[in-house]
Write a structure and sequence with these properties.
Blueprint (H helix, E strand, L loop, with lengths): L10 E2 L6 E2 L6 E9 L16 H13 L3 H8 E9 H7 L6
Antiparallel strand pairs: 1-2, 3-4
Bound molecules: zinc ion.
Zinc ion binds next to strand 4 and helix 3.
Length: about 100
C-alpha cells in the first residue's frame, strides 16, 4: 500500500471541501464499489463475417496493450470518499446525480 500517510491527511468533504473532524460525528464515509457488467459476453456466430479466431487474437492483442493493473481497474474499482452531514444528506437522495 502506498497510502500509509492517509492517517495524517486532513479530512475534507469531497463535495464542499469543508474540514471534517474525526470523532465529532460530523461526516460520513462513503465506499463506492463499481463492477463492470459481469454478464459473459455474447459471441455471435461469425459476426460480420469475421471468424472467431481473428476476434480472439484481436482481443489478446488489445489486452497486451494494457497492464494487468489497468485491466483490473476496468473491471472493478473501489473509491472511498468523505461527505459532511449536509452533503451526505443531499447526496444519498440522489447518488447518481
Ligand atoms: Zn460537504
Amino acid at each position: 500500500m502506498t497510502e500509509s500517510n492517509d492517517d495524517f491527511a486532513p479530512l475534507l468533504c469531497a463535495k464542499c471541501l469543508r474540514d471534517l473532524t474525526p470523532g465529532a460525528g460530523d461526516f460520513y464515509v462513503v465506499s463506492i464499489e463499481a463492477v463492470a457488467d459481469p454478464t459473459p459476453p455474447t459471441i455471435d456466430e461469425q459476426p460480420h463475417g469475421r471468424d472467431l479466431k481473428t476476434e480472439i487474437n484481436n482481443l489478446i492483442r488489445d489486452l497486451h496493450d494494457v497492464s494487468a493493473r489497468e485491466a483490473m481497474d476496468q473491471v472493478r474499482r473501489g473509491v472511498t470518499i468523505h461527505l459532511c452531514r449536509n452533503c451526505y444528506g443531499s447526496w444519498i437522495e440522489n447518488p447518481a446525480g
